[in-house]
């Protein structure tokens, strides 16, 4: 019917006026022109989108940069380079080591570049053989329970699951680990072996750095021998050229508009003013401090119970997870650097990478003021490494200061001894060095380039989301200690947290950036499974969340298994944290047994390990006869190792096994997630 009406109208028009008027023609031309441009523009964008590979890049890079940055082999070829140094880094140390190795390549006529595996197509390694005298070096950290770092995860999985032909690839590996942990340098060792399995040639033996001892020493020693092997393998010699070349150039940003200047954001400009979910390492949530109270009853030490408000953030956590806290340096130390170097800390600047092919354009968010950089982005409280000593030499006007820096920067036995005693033993940071070597006056922009990034601090979450879905609790000891030079060193994060006290009035509440890091430290899936928890001091933190969760299940009417807690501290009347809570859980039946060790309440010191040895029958009953779970949280260096030895001994004696069988039994417990540790050194 509609069609017949249309025909009638058209018929009428035909009889009364021309079929197409001048206006009709003009409109038709406009429509065709718009359609033409729309179609071909869309087609071009679509084609571009299809061709662009998916890469994970820093938020500051443009889409054009992202496309080119994914292929490191193209950069090597186009810039005449033959050395690529990749890193797997969680705290920045492996990245720093990678940069130092790449920089030194110039001394051996091997122009190098640093590659982040997360931002590069590591399948390019197959093509490295096309570059004459090429070399791939990997600085790889092992993280958590023998896991790859976040940025090396895809590369690790590519090696695991792929079967690329890497014949013709020359490589070397340096691992960063900690001997107090069970999975010491596991990822680096795997990558070293896997590359060889895939046909690559190992130019130099793997180096294993131990952060529990002196990882800087380990790295320098390995690096020296690495270049000897490189020279032998390629038949080249050291040029003798110094590698103290600036990686970044200073850019004056005094004319930049205030709204384009970073003021402490981790990645995205104005991210704290305009918060966007999801929140992660590059996009933390600015949380209000809801509670900050003292847990110690007396004494000169402090332990804080802090609650972060996450209401409305959409953040979710599980019992046993960690929360990362982004600290800032004290204004006192920052001002001291400005004073020592006679610098204007409020000047706005940027550091721009001199390597135009690098995906890392800036060492930290730029532009910003020097005050912002020193407060939020740079680590000014840790012990500087030897390469910083080397870079400071040129700024010393006093020959004595020059000689001291040269000695500490050297790899001679005398130099290593001096560095160990003057920097490590005396616990000097960059502020102390500038104070004690008064003629050393580095350019502040160069110092900002040299100093490592300030890292977030991780804390075990001491609450359960079942009970506290809108807040995250942590338990933190205030870190303050006097060094051998009579200086008081203060923990960056805990001293900041100690100042963030919420108020009861209408004033804005204190805030701090945080994000949640997932953990494998988990309660058994079944609430009936019995568990043993061993957590002296702040090692109690995750178990507070465990107990809350089981208590919640009990109140819901579900059956819960035995919960046995071993807790220890110095004195019952001084640092027995959460005492009333724990006693209440014992009274209502959630906590089956509470074993307490107060090390200084009697002449002979008493620790949780002593109680474990005394309760061998109870231990075996739960982990052996009832297939329960065992958890350890706290000091990795001694306590966790002692607990492990005791468990092996209990399995031997009560399970009537040999030492080898007991070790295998405990190993199987770990593999089945029945023996879990959340420890630190």
TrEMBL record:
Keyword set, alphabetical order: Endoplasmic reticulum, FAD, Flavoprotein, FMN, Membrane, NADP, Oxidoreductase, Transmembrane, Transmembrane helix
Keyword Zinc: no
GO molecular function, one term: flavin adenine dinucleotide binding
Keyword Flavoprotein: yes
Catalytic reaction(s) noted: 2 oxidized [cytochrome P450] + NADPH = 2 reduced [cytochrome P450] + NADP(+) + H(+)
Main location: endoplasmic reticulum
Gene3D superfamilies assigned: 3.40.50.360, NADPH-cytochrome p450 Reductase, Chain A, domain 3 (1.20.990.10), Nucleotide-binding domain of ferredoxin-NADP reductase (FNR) module (3.40.50.80), Translation factors (2.40.30.10)
Domain Flavodoxin-like: 83-227
InterPro entries found in the cross-reference section: CysJ-like_FAD-binding, FAD-bd_FR_type, Flavdoxin-like, Flavodoxin/NO_synth, Flavoprot_Pyr_Nucl_cyt_Rdtase, Flavoprotein-like_sf, FNR_nucleotide-bd, NADPH_Cyt_P450_Rdtase_alpha
GO biological process: response to hormone
CDD domains xrefs: CYPOR
FAD-binding FR-type domain span: 282-524
Pfam families xrefs: FAD_binding_1, Flavodoxin_1, NAD_binding_1
Cofactor: FAD; FMN
Annotated cofactor note: Binds 1 FAD per monomer. Binds 1 FMN per monomer.
Membrane topology: Single-pass membrane protein
Localization terms from the record: Endoplasmic reticulum membrane
Binding positions for NADP(+) per the UniProt entry: 301, 538, 599-600, 605-609, 642
Family: In the C-terminal section; belongs to the flavoprotein pyridine nucleotide cytochrome reductase family. In the N-terminal section; belongs to the flavodoxin family.
Protein name as it appears in the record: NADPH--cytochrome P450 reductase
């Amino acid at each position: 019917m509609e069609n017949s009406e249309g025909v009638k109208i058209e018929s009428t028009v035909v009889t009364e006026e021309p079929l197409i008027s001048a206006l009709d023609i003009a409109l038709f031309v406009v429509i065709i022109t718009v359609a033409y441009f729309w179609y071909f523009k869309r087609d071009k964008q679509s084609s571009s989108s299809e061709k662009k590979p998916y890469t994970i890049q820093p938020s500051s890079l443009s889409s054009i940069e992202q496309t080119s940055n994914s292929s490191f082999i193209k950069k090597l070829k186009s810039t005449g380079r033959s050395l690529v140094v990749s890193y797997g880094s969680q705290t920045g140390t492996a990245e720093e080591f990678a940069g130092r190795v790449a920089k030194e390549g110039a001394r051996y006529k091997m122009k190098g570049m640093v590659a982040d595996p997360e931002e590069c197509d590591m399948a390019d390694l197959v093509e490295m053989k096309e570059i004459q005298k090429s070399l791939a070096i990997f600085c790889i950290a092992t993280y958590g329970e023998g896991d790859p770092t976040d940025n090396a995860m895809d590369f690790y999985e590519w090696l695991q699951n792929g079967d690329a032909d890497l014949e013709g690839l020359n490589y070397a590996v340096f691992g960063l680990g900690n001997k107090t942990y069970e999975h010491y340098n596991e990822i680096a060792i795997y990558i070293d072996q896997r590359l060889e399995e895939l046909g690559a040639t190992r130019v130099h033996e793997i180096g294993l750095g131990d952060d529990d001892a002196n990882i800087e020493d380990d790295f320098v020693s390995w690096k020296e021998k690495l270049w000897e092997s490189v020279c032998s393998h390629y038949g080249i010699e050291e040029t003798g050229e110094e590698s103290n070349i600036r990686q970044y150039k200073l850019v004056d940003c005094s004319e930049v508009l205030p709204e384009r200047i970073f003021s402490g954001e981790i990645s995205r400009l104005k991210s704290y003013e305009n918060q966007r979910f999801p929140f992660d390492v590059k996009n933390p949530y600015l949380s209000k401090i809801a509670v900050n109270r003292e847990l110690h009853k007396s004494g000169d030490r402090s332990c804080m119970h802090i609650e972060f408000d996450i209401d409305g953030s959409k953040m979710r956590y599980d019992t046993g997870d960690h929360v990362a806290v982004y600290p800032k340096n004290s204004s006192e130390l920052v001002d001291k650097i400005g004073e020592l170097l006679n610098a204007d800390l409020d000047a706005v600047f940027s550091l721009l990478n001199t390597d135009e092919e690098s995906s890392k354009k800036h060492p930290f968010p730029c532009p910003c003021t020097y005050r912002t950089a020193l407060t939020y982005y740079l680590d000014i409280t840790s012990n500087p490494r030897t390469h910083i000593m080397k870079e400071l030499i040129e700024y010393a006007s006093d020959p004595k200061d020059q000689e001291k820096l040269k000695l500490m920067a050297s790899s001679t036995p005398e130099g290593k001894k001096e560095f160990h005693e003057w920097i490590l033993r005396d616990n000097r940071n960059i502020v102390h060095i500038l104070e004690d070597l008064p003629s050393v006056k580095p350019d502040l922009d160069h110092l900002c380039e040299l100093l490592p990034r300030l890292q977030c601090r991780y804390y075990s979450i001491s609450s359960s989301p079942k009970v506290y879905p809108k807040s995250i609790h942590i338990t933190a000891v205030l870190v303050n200690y006097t060094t051998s030079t009579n200086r008081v060193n203060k923990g960056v994060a805990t001293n900041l947290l100690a100042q963030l006290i919420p108020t009861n009035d209408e004033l804005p509440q204190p805030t701090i950036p945080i994000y949640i890091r997932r953990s494998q430290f988990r309660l058994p899936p079944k609430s009936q499974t019995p568990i043993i928890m061993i957590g002296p001091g702040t090692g109690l933190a995750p178990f507070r969340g465990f107990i809350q969760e089981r208590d919640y299940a009990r109140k819901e009417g579900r059956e819960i298994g035995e919960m046995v807690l071993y807790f220890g501290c110095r004195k019952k009347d001084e640092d027995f944290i959460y005492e009333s809570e724990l006693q209440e859980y014992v009274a209502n039946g959630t906590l089956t047994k509470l074993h307490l060790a107060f090390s200084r309440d009697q002449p002979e010191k008493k620790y949780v390990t002593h109680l474990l040895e005394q309760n061998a029958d109870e231990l075996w009953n739960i982990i052996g006869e009832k297939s329960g779970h065992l958890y350890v949280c706290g000091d990795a260096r001694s306590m966790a190792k002692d607990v492990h030895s005791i468990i092996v001994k209990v399995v031997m004696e009560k399970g009537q096994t040999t030492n080898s069988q007991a070790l295998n039994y405990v190993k199987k417990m770990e593999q089945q997630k029945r023996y879990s540790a959340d420890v630190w050194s």
